[in-house]
Amino acid sequence: MNRFPVVTGLCQYPHTTRKGQNLTNMTNADNPNTAAATRAADLKREGAARATFAAGCFWGVEASFREIEGVLDTSVGYTGGTDVSPSYERVCSGATGHAEAVEVWFDPTIVSYGELLRAFWSMHNPTTRDQQGWDIGSQYRSAIFLHDAEQERVAIASRDERQGDLARPIVTQIVPATTFHDAEDYHQRYFEHHGGAMCATTIR
Description:
Peptide Methionine Sulfoxide Reductase, Chain A, 6-stranded mixed β-sheet, alpha+beta, two-stranded antiparallel ribbon, globular, 21% strand
């Protein structure tokens, strides 16, 4: 297993389910954030820490983070907006303010937040505003959602370090985390369940 996947290429996978799939049986439970809260409580008891990132197409971003040693759990979802009950269709409309994002739970004794940030910078282009490859819209923005003051300090330092390697300015938002809404079940761990190329990315 590669400790830090370096991802190149951009999301080219259509954000649709396969023809003929029955979405009625592929949605979250009636209250998905209840399940998310239970999962979070269990992980906190185990000493896990949480990080939340947006870097375009959440299918490939989640798959990339799951390759990192020390990542315990991931979930794709929507955050950073105002809609209190977002769906994929509403988020795609651009009207909710939410970004496609990945919540990452990790063991800080194995992988640090700074190391996750280095992976984050490698898996997308942080210099394009509201766009990753063919995916255009505010839901595809680059963002780091902060869970405490220490994450803010580390994220800013990491951004400044990464900026030294880039000619164009980084436009990644670094903002406090708000409610994370788990995406529909059919989006979770999408490539593990459905196969296919990782959003036309390469991990090495």
